[in-house]
Structures are given as structure tokens and as C-alpha cells.
Amino acid sequence: MTQAHCQLTICAMNLLVGIYDHLGWAIAVTASSEHDVVDRRRIELLEPGMPNMPIHHPEHGLSPDEITALVTRVRASAELATTASFDALAAGLPGSVASVHLACRFSHRHRHSAAPAI
Length: 118
Fold this sequence. Notes:
about 120 residues; alpha+beta; four-stranded mixed β-sheet; 4 strands; about 40% helix; about 25% strand; elongated
């Protein structure tokens, strides 16, 4: 098989993207339908300078209205940064994305607090 043929095959494939989020960023792993990894990168989910946990660790001395405004700014930042990151990811891949899978993670404490008492 020639290199040109291999590149055309990759470009024609439908890709699977897996996303594992962290605080303000995520890892995106892209695989072919044959499960070969074709791309792995860090993507930003917040703009620089935005707090990644505004509700869990609010600034000291903020009123409820100020906290609401902060959360609104962080949500807007998340929308802009995530859209830009996904656009850059899609533009940099060697094929079209067939599906995106998000990893759901909960802390050990949350798993057990939701479990029924035995």
C-alpha cells in the first residue's frame, strides 16, 4: 500500500473521540473504528484566569449576587473555551468524527454516599 493510499484511508474513516474531563481541561483521545489511536491531546475547557470550581471554593467576602455573577462568567468562559477546543480538535483530525464519548467520574465519597445503607 502506498503512503497516499494510507492517508486516504485514514481520511475516509469515521473517528471515535473519548473525553475525560479534569478541572478546567480535558484529555481527548481519538481512535479509528479499528481502535487505533490517531490523536491524543489536552483541550482547555475554561479561558485562562477563570476559577475551575467557583461554587466549591468561592472567593471570600462575595455576596450571593457576586457569586451568581462569577458563576455566570465561568459558564460563559466554559462555553467559549470548550467550543474553541472542540473546533480545533475537529479541524486537526484526519477524518470525520462519528461519535464523542464522555467519561463520567465521581469521587469515592460520592459513590458511597449515594449507595443504600446495608
